[in-house]
Specification:
With 171 residues, the protein is mainly alpha-helical. It contains six helices and no strands. Bound molecules: hydroxy diiron-OXO moiety (OFO).
Length: 171
């Protein structure tokens, strides 16, 4: 694999690990507020991000490239409100989408068709990731992020369970 492509994929492993760390930190923040449904939703989100990192890890290995793991940045641990945390989630997913799009650009520029093909899964996944974060953010804004409706949303979010990527794809 071309060195530029290799470095860009390596960096994405780090970005996905950071996403996992960020959402785990949000899970701790929500647990501390006794919003256990939100804490569960973020915990599952963190598990998904770890699975994304592993998908990149496995692909890089498959292409016989040595992976270099870098330090993971410390995530923020406090937010001003439930809405603020979800706003950050939505913004973060938009950032990840732009990173994935950049990776596709590199794959095209370097004529790496296999990597471009591999990345298309993430292109679709990001559409869902942004949609889910935005949906939850819109619901929270509608109820001003508080009151009995917040606890109803919280109760619903307790039901989210982590589905391994291969099983999710088989559905
Ligand atoms: Fe890995 O999709 Fe979110 O960040």
């Amino acid at each position: 694999m071309n060195k530029r492509m290799e470095d860009a994929l390596n960096e994405q492993v780090n970005a996905e690990m950071f996403s996992s760390y960020l959402y785990l930190s949000m899970s701790a923040y929500f647990a501390d507020m006794n919003l256990n449904g939100f804490a569960n939703w973020m915990r599952v989100q963190a598990q998904e991000e770890l699975a994304h990192a592993m998908k990149f890890f496995d692909y890089i290995n498959e292409r016989s490239v040595r992976i270099e793991l870098k330090a993971i940045e410390q995530p923020r641990k406090e937010w001003g409100s439930v809405i603020e945390a979800m706003e950050e989630t939505y913004k973060h997913e938009q950032l990840i989408t732009s990173l994935i799009n950049n990776l596709v650009n590199v794959a095209i520029e370097e004529k790496d068709h296999a990597t471009n093909n591999f990345l298309q899964w993430f292109v679709s996944e990001q559409v869902e990731e942004e949609a889910h974060a935005n949906e939850l953010l819109s619901e929270l804004k509608m109820i001003d992020g508080k009151g009995p409706a917040l606890f109803m949303i919280d109760r619903e979010l307790k039901n989210r369970v982590f589905v391994p990527l291969d099983q999710a794809a088989a559905k």
